[in-house]
Amino acid sequence: MTRILHVVTNVGHYDDPSQHPTGLWLSELSHAWEVFEQRGFEQAIVSPQGGVSPLEPRSLKFPNYHKNAKAWHNDPARMVLLETTLSPDEVHSADYDAIYFTGGHAVMFDFPDSEGLQRITREIWERGGIVSSVCHGYCGLLNTRLSDGTLLVEGKNLTGFAWQEEVLARVDKLVPYNAEKEMKKRGAHYEKAKLPFVSYAVVDGNLVSGQNPGSAKETAERVAAALTTD
After folding, report:
1. Cα gap 99→192, rounded to integer Å
2. Which listed residue, of 75, 91, 113, 127, carries a Cα 20 to 30 Å from 164's Cα?
3. Which whole-number Å values give the CA distances from 64 to 21, 50, 56, 59, 162, in the listed order?
4. Integer Cα distance of 213 and 225 in angstroms
5. At what angle do helices 26-38 and 216-228 cross, to 10 degrees?
6. Residue 60 and residue 81: Cα distance in Å, rounded?
7. CA distance 50 to 44
8. Alpha-carbon distance 34 to 100, whole Å?
9. Looking at residue 17, what is its pLDDT?
10. Can you give the pTM of this predicted structure?
11. What angle do CA 116, 13, 60 make, to 5 degrees?
12. Beta strands 189-190 and 3-7: pairing type?
C-alpha cells in the first residue's frame, strides 16, 4: 500500500499587531487528497505540534472555495482529521512513501524550523521516497539538511509561491520574509510560471513542487506518477 504523509500548519494568525487570521489553504490539501484517494493510496496528516490545524479564511471564500474544498469543509469526518493531526514524534518515516507539504501563509511561521518535520523529510528523502510541496509549503524545505549536512534544496529545481503573487495578494507587508528570495539564497534553482496564479509544477528527481494553490492537483498528479513509475 502506497502511503502519503500530508503536512499542515498549526498557526492561525500572522505575527502582526492586528493578528490577521491565516491557516491552512484548504484546497491545497483537498485537491491532493482526492488525487491520492482515487489511486487507492493510504493517507495521514501531521503538523509541527500535532492537534488542530486552523483554516485560512480566504481559502473558504469565492473564487478560492473550490468544490472539493467545500465538500471537505462540510464533511464532519474530514474536518476531524484537521482537529487531530499527528505530531512528528508520532510519525515513523519508514511508514510513508512520500511527504506532501501544504501551504497557506501560516506555514511560513511554523514549518521552517520544525526539527520533527525536518527529520521525517530527511529520512523519507534518503530512503528514496518523494518529497513534495505546494505553494508556501516549500517553506518547510528551507532549512532541511541531509545527513551529510547539505541542504536538501541546494542545487535543486523547484517552485513555490512567488513574491509577485504575494504582492498581488496584498500580503507582502504581512509575511515574515520573502520565501522566493530565501529559497534562492539556499542555492535552489527557483522557477515560476510566466503568469501569476496559473498551475505550474516542477519535478527534479524525487522532489516535486507546485507554485500556488491552483497547482495542487497538478502537483499531486506528478507525485502519484512518480510513485507508480516502475
Report:
1. 22
2. 113
3. 16, 26, 11, 5, 18
4. 20
5. 30
6. 17
7. 12
8. 13
9. 77
10. 0.98
11. 100
12. unpaired
Instruction: Supply the pLDDT for residue 229.
Output: 76
Tell me the domains of the chain and their CATH numbers: 3-228 (3.40.50.880)
- Residues 104-163: pLDDT tens digits? 999 999 999 999 999 999 999 999 999 999 999 999 999 999 999 999 999 999 999 999
Q: What is the pLDDT of residues 157-209, one digit of tens each?
A: 999 999 999 999 999 999 999 999 999 999 999 999 999 999 999 999 999 99
Radius of gyration of the chain (CA): 16
Structural contact between residues 14 and 200, judged by C-beta atoms closer than 8 angstroms: no
And the C-alpha cell for 192?
Answer: 515560476
Q: Do 102 and 45 contact (CB within 8 A), yes or no?
A: no
